[in-house]
């Protein structure tokens, strides 16, 4: 049985191999955007990245392994949290970041492709869960700091507050098709901050 720490697509290459990883992940992004998960063929990815097929098969093993590594890289490259000094401001920054990502012509299509793949492939779903867990962990300290400032009561579930910001934005993105813009982001952040202040997210 393969150890999760050494599974294909989980190795973090450095030095001279970093460029290979970057080229392959970029090719995987392009394939997902153009064709969805069905377009992530390792031989085709190798051709796009101008890398030997053996290298791609050895390092990532399967399309699922490659997408898992792509999501890990996206988590690593994501914009770090903004600290404005208020819960409303921090959540507004978070919401605007989500909106800007989902409405980006390239990133929005990429996220839809990955989310679609995650509905039918367990390994991709697990990688997607890890991606969002990383992003929630990055922003949760903003809520903890708000508790320390007295803007929300002790016992507030920081992760749940961050989820509450993203959830309605993803609903618009994936389900309703309603507009996604800075105004919507600000409204969601303001509503969530007020709810947190009343103790709605106390464990």
Features of the shown structure:
mainly alpha; Tetracycline Repressor, domain 2; 69% helix; elongated; disordered N terminus; Tet_transcr_reg_TetR-rel_C_sf; HTH-type_TetR-like_transc_reg; transcription cis-regulatory region binding; transcription regulation; DNA-binding transcription factor activity
Characterize the structure shown:
With 203 residues, this protein is mostly helical. The chain folds into 2 domains: 4-74, Homeodomain-like (Arc Repressor Mutant, subunit A, Orthogonal Bundle); 82-197, Tetracycline Repressor, domain 2. The protein contains 9 helices and no strands. The protein has helices at residues 18-35, 42-49, 53-60, 63-77, 87-102, 107-118, 122-149, 158-176, 182-197. Residues 1-11 have low confidence and may be disordered. Keywords: DNA-binding, Transcription, Transcription regulation. This is AcrR family transcriptional regulator.
Brief summary:
One of its GO terms (molecular function) is transcription cis-regulatory region binding. With 203 residues, the chain is mainly alpha-helical. It is 69% helix and 0% strand.
Compile the SSE list and pairings:
Elements: H1 18-35, H2 42-49, H3 53-60, H4 63-77, H5 87-102, H6 107-118, H7 122-149, H8 158-176, H9 182-197
């Amino acid at each position: 049985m393969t150890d999760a720490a050494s599974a294909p697509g989980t190795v973090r290459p450095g030095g001279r191999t970093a460029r290979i990883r970057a080229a392959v992940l970029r090719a995987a992004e392009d394939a997902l955007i153009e064709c969805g998960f069905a377009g992530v063929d390792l031989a085709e990815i190798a051709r796009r990245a101008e890398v030997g097929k053996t290298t791609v098969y050895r390092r990532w093993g399967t399309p699922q392994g490659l997408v898992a590594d792509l999501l890990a890289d996206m988590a690593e490259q994501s914009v770090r949290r903004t600290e404005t000094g208020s819960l409303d401001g921090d959540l507004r920054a978070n919401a605007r970041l989500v909106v800007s990502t989902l409405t980006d012509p390239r990133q929005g299509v990429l996220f839809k492709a990955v989310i679609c793949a995650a509905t039918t492939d367990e390994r991709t779903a697990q990688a997607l869960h890890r991606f969002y867990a990383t992003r929630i962990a990055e922003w949760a300290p903003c809520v903890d700091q708000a508790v320390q400032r007295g803007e929300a009561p002790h016992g507030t579930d920081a992760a749940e507050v961050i989820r509450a910001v993203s959830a309605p934005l993803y609903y618009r993105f994936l389900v309703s098709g309603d507009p996604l813009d800075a105004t919507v982001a600000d409204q969601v952040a303001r509503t969530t901050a007020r709810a947190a202040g009343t103790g709605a997210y106390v464990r």
